[in-house]
Amino acid sequence: KMIKKAVLPVAGLGTRFLPASKATPKEMLPIIDKPLVQYAVEEAINAGINEIIFITSPEKNSIKNHFDKNEEIESRLIKSGKDDMVKKLNPDIFSNITFYYVNQETQNGLGDAILHAESIIKNEDFAVLLPDDLFFSKRSCLSQLIDIYNEKKSSVIAVNKIDKENIHKYGVIKPGKVSDVFINVQDIVEKPSYKDAPSDIAVCGRYVLTSSIFNHLKATDFDKNGEIQLTDAIRSLIKDEEVLACLYKGEKFDCGSKKGFVHATIALALRDESISEDIKKIIKDII
Ligand code: UTP
């Protein structure tokens, strides 16, 4: 069993990014010159994924356009001698990937979004990447999860430690046995209050899930906000199967929030050799 399929839920309304997200999906907002969603797609492909299933909405056409090969602009670039730009326009790594687009008609939550992938995934185990979370590390976040999955064949979720005062914004695990490589998840709760949080270990946007999650998603009720929560389905999965967590080693930017988005932009600008010196000067001047 190998992880070859990944689900990227991109149907959310992106309300925290209005008005930018009114006509442009928030997943298409760029960090420097690359849309957020492309960072996640590249992470998936580099981890061995060859089928990518976007859970999207009909008005988010630009995501499909972005991953389709654009031969017209390619030939124009070649004619005008800008061959070096062709790799940016139509990256080679996309050529062997199958992209699927499934519409989620109503935004009924992350769990509902993932359930929409069942007809394509069927009974295979699969990865989930939330493009809002941007990860940077030598071995990518998804590859770290797949390493554990390959050994244990269990669901593995990425987690990181969070300041307790921010814990109410995340899914939080109750850790069981801890080894060097993974933590056994005893329980998981969505957005607990400070005092009810079972730990300071929060779920971040990468998962490897066994296909049995679909049955648990189907049995999950809507929460008080009318959403089907993936966290609730994982909570139910834990009763049947081992679920592991991987304390992610690397950097993480929460680009679903303005603060995280700007943080990622500054961090990446300072690493981009073509602009880093100028940006340093600009930041010094501003301060
Ligand atoms: P978020 O809650 O972070 O995204 O969902 P959002 O709802 O778009 O943003 P805000 O809170 O309104 O600002 C996490 C991920 O799940 C997807 C989102 O697109 C995002 O990638 N999602 C969420 C869906 O695909 N469908 C949903 O019904 C809800």
Task: Give a brief rundown of this model.
32% of the residues lie in helices and 24% in strands. It contains 11 helices and 13 strands.
The strand count comes to 13
* Rounded radius of gyration (Å): 19 Å
What is the molecular shape?
globular
Total helix count?
Answer: 11
Which small compounds were modeled alongside the protein?
A: uridine 5'-triphosphate
- Contiguous low-pLDDT stretches (5 residues minimum) are none
Residue-averaged pLDDT:
96
The arrangement of helices and strands along the chain is: EEEHEHHHEHHEEHEEEEHHEEHH
Largest pleated sheet: 9 strands, mixed
- By secondary-structure content and strand pairing, the structural class works out as alpha/beta
Query: Order of strands side by side in the largest beta sheet?
Result: 5-4-1-6-11-8-12-10-9
Give the amount of beta strand, in percent: 15-25%
Helix content: 25-40%
How far the N terminus sits from the C terminus, by CA atoms, comes to 53 Å
